[in-house]
Amino acid sequence: MSNTFCIYSEDQPGVLSRVAALIYRRGYNIISIAAGPTEIKGVSRYTLVFDGEESTYDQVQKQLQKLAEVISVRNLTREGNTVERYLKLIKVKAPVSKRPSIFQTAEVFRCRVVDIGADTISFEVTGSESKVEACLAALEPYGIVETAGSGQVSLARSGLKSNKDK
């Protein structure tokens, strides 16, 4: 089973490679890494998803926390109740005769047009992993030319408490 970690670190060169190396050395496969600056100047945030054995997640979390530049590490999977999103850019073959049906298909997935060329259209789709994968499958018959995507990004929910929490 995969787990999602949220790692805050000082914005320093090499931190991401040390984080990835720590996971790699344990023989685990990183499924997704998304990295970027935070609302705090000089602090970066990494969302890291990897497959491992349930018994090792606590150990990995402790070892990540020991890295000099790391400020905090949270296992969002263990905390539960998160918001997860993926972004995918999809370039599709789009002869003029097929464009109405391509636009109709893209609209079902709330895709946003980001570029139109003479024979291709590029869309942006965001959502859950299953939504993004379903969108790709729906556009596949038209001919996907190229795709690029972010990894998973996640936030712990901070919304209202449910009735079961009362």
Summarize the structure.
Helices cover 28% and strands 41% of the residues.
Describe the 3D structure:
The chain is α+β, with helices and mostly antiparallel strands and 166 residues long. The chain contains five helices and nine strands, in the order βαββαβαβαββαββ. The strands form two sheets. Strands 5, 6, 7, 8 and 9 form a five-stranded antiparallel β-sheet that branches. The protein has a four-stranded antiparallel β-sheet with strand order 2-3-1-4. The longest helix is centred in the N-terminal third of the chain and has 11 residues. The chain is elongated and about 60 Å long.
Topology overview:
Elements (H helix, E strand, L loop, with lengths): L1 E9 L4 H11 L3 E9 L5 E9 L5 H10 L3 E6 H4 L2 E12 L5 H10 L3 E5 L3 E8 L1 H11 L4 E6 L3 E4 L10
From the alpha-carbon coordinates, what is the Rg to the nearest angstrom? 19 Å
Assess the beta-strand content as a share of residues: 35-45%
Q: Report the helical percentage.
A: 25-40%
| Average pLDDT number | 91
Number of helices: 5
Features:
166 residues, alpha+beta, 5-stranded antiparallel beta sheet, 4-stranded antiparallel beta sheet
